[in-house]
Each structure stands twice: as structure tokens, then as C-alpha cells.
Model the fold of this input.
Amino acid sequence: MNNLKRINDYELGNIKKFDKYKENLMLIDDKVISYTTHVATVKPFELLQWKKWSQTTQKHINYVAKELGLELIRS
Done:
């Protein structure tokens, strides 16, 4: 059994905090987490967003796409 710590239901693997939105935005492996919700997924050369989010969460997603140099794909 893996003894990784958890934030809600997300196992903590590789964690990246960003310079902006430090308290409420992080990247865990390929998952963009805004507050405690998985809101987008990093794929090669793109960031996949599968639904419409609040204005604040959308700012987080846009910021991550820009910081990582990824094309934002909205489903």
C-alpha cells in the first residue's frame, strides 16, 4: 500500500505551486487543482478543460496554461 499523504482524495505525487494564486492553485502530477477541485488535465502541448467553471477558477486555468506554455482546449 502506498503511504502518500492526501489532500481530499488526491494522492500527492509531484506537486507544483505557482507564483501567483499560491494558496488556491497547484499542479499534482498532471492534474490542475483549484481550491480542492481537479479542474483541468495537462497533456502533451495542451491543457484540457472539460467543463465551464467559475470566473476565479477560469483565471486559475488560464494562468496555468500561460505559465506552462500550453494551448488551452475546452471541451
